[in-house]
Every structure is written in structure tokens, then in C-alpha cells.
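Researcher: I'm preparing a figure for a lab meeting and need a structural model of a single chain. I don't have an experimental structure, so a prediction will have to do for now. The sequence is pasted below. Please return the structure as C-alpha cells so I can convert it later.
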Amino acid sequence: MWGRGRNRGRARLARGWGIAGQAIAISVAIVVVAGCSGGRATPVPSATTTAVAPSPSTASTPAATATSTPPPATAGTFSPAGSMDAARLSATLLRDGRVLMLDSHDELGNVLGSAQVFEPRSGAYRETAGSMATPRFDPAVAELQDGRVLVAGGEDGTQTPLASAELFDPGSGTFKATGSMKTARRGASAFLLPDGHVLVVGGRDDTGASLASAEVFDPKSGNFSSTGSMTTARDAFGAAQLRDGRILIVGGCCSGSDLYTSAELYDPTTGFFMPAGSMSFGRMNPALAVLIDGRVIVAGGNSSAVADKALASAEIFNPKTDAFTATGSMKQPRDGLNATRLTDGRVLMSGGAPDASAEIYDPNGGAFTTTGSMTTYRAGQATATLLQDGRVLIAGGGAGQDAYSAETYQP
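Model: Understood. Here is the structure written out cell by cell.
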């Protein structure tokens, strides 16, 4: 499986204050980053979360696929959470607690410009008031400091990468075009930097080749500018934003059939990438989660660029030493999985296995334990979003109609 188990080059993301592509409201103590698709404010997050006042709900239309408040769930279990109107591969937590869901195509392969918003309190999926300015698949997505969402690049359904970008306004529920990137790219990753700019890194060009280049979006001007390039052009890598605002890039491929054990760090203060140690294993599509103490767990992925050879192993990156050390292994090999840090500091590993199983990583003991199973098998196309109430929304990734379904995990 390529790129986070979806398509080659979609990086696995984690953020210092919200994991795996998702932005979570935090008490202002210090950061912020969830784009592959996926990446945040000057303060760095503490483990304590606070609710943010909802923005106007004009972003939704009356139609919805669910209306009742979800019943309480038993700890350590998954519960059905309705269905989307399409199989969507991007989920971004908004400041008011809703989840923006986009990045989809229909059964014929046509790229869709529509988007939906999931409302955790009612369990409803509502169409946004407007569609994307440009239908796009596999874009880089990041929430801005003002609550808007940047959607950049992707491809148009003909495997042609896009340079265009647009902004979603949660208040109006509409998308509006903004400046274009310097380089057309699909499968890139995006992170909100401490100064409010957004880093867009990697992806693939129109030949399918991996890109080492990166650029920065300025929300005030609406323009992109070039920044330093990665030390290695890599595809299907994992990424996480550290608590100090730096971006960790690990693994990926491809130089022929070789996988990379190397890692590198982007420093927003200098605009450059620098080498940052090496992992014990070369791995594509690993899942990353930033732990409460600032270390990063790197788990699973694929050990081959030409075959499905999922990994159960995991390792820990220490930002203070730029070194990786081994930790416990998962119960199941997983490729294209999601890693979601829960509010109590443990990490939920979901998807990417040959069954519906899920497991929990405890940083204190460095071990994995099984937890309740998902309601359906989900491969590498699922999204995982930590909601403001502590539950985790798992959406898509299944086969057939299950690709439209969603469920929530109650820690």
C-alpha cells in the first residue's frame, strides 16, 4: 500500500497539539500543528484542552444524515457514528468542535468538490454551504490561526498535480481561492508554524517523482514563497510537529526500491531542514504521535516499497538528543495505520491491520495492549480525529459501503 495506505506519497502526520492531521483547541501555555494529508500557533500545547466558543453555524445546510445525540459508550469500545455521503480521506478538527471532511472521489474515479462537516453533539453530517473552488484529491490541509482552513494542491482526477489553493471559512461554510503554490504537488503535507505561516512540504510532481522542495503560505498576503528543501526527496514519509514548532520528517522512499531509515527536522526560525538521526528500520507510511513529554512514537508502516510487508515494531524519537530508541511492538503488523494521542497521554493505534483490531500504547510502560475492536475492518484510507470531548472519530477506510461509514472510540 502506498502513501499512508491510500496512495503513494500521502505522509502520515502527527502534531504537537493535535495528532495525525487534526487541530485541537488548547489552553495557551505554549504550540501548535494534523496533512499525505495533513499540521501551530505561537503557544506550544500543554496536555490540558479547553473548549472554544463555536463559530456561527451558517456553514451547514439543514440536511443531515443523523440527528440524535450519541448515547454514552463504554470505555475502550467503538460505536457507530453514521455515514458520510462519500469516502473522504481528509478530516480537520475546527475550533468549534466540528470536523471538516473533504478529499474524495466517486466510484467512477471522478474527483468531488463537495465537503461535509461532522457535528459530534448530534452525530450529523452536513453539507457545507459551498463546494471547493477547484475539485481536488489528495491535497495538503492545515487549519490557520484564525480558524480558516488551507487546502493546497492535490490532483484533478487525471493524475495531474495542482498548484492552486483555497481557504475554507467555517463561519460561512464556503471556499475561496487564494494564491497558488510555486510548485504543483499532490500528496504533500501541511503544518501551521508558530508564526502563523503554513509549511507545505514534499508530495509528487506530474511524473510521479518525489519532491524535496517546500514552500510557506502567508495568510495575510495569500501568497506562497519558497523555503529550504528536504535533505532527501522522499515519498510516503511520516511527519510530526514537535512542541518547539520544528517539523520532524521520518522514513519513506523511494530511490529505486530502497526505504529510508533517515530523518530530518525543519526549523521555522531558519527555514532549513537538517539531518536528525536514523531509525532502526526503513519504513513507509509509519504513524507518528507526539507524546505528552515531547518525544515522538513512530509505529508500523511497510518495510518494502514493492510488496505489502507491514511492520509491528515501533521506536521513540527524542528531540533533545535527535536519537531513536526501540520500544515495545504492536500486537498486529499495521501499514497505513493512524496514531491518535488520547487526552490521558496514551496513544490509540487503529486501522492498517488485516482485521478490525485496535490497540493502545502506554508511554509509561512502553508497551501495547489490545482494546475493543472497531465495528468494521478499516485499511489505510481511514482518518482519525481527536474530538474535543475526548472521543476519537474514525471515518472511511473500509471496503464497499464501509468506506462511507464512521465510528467513535471512547477511551
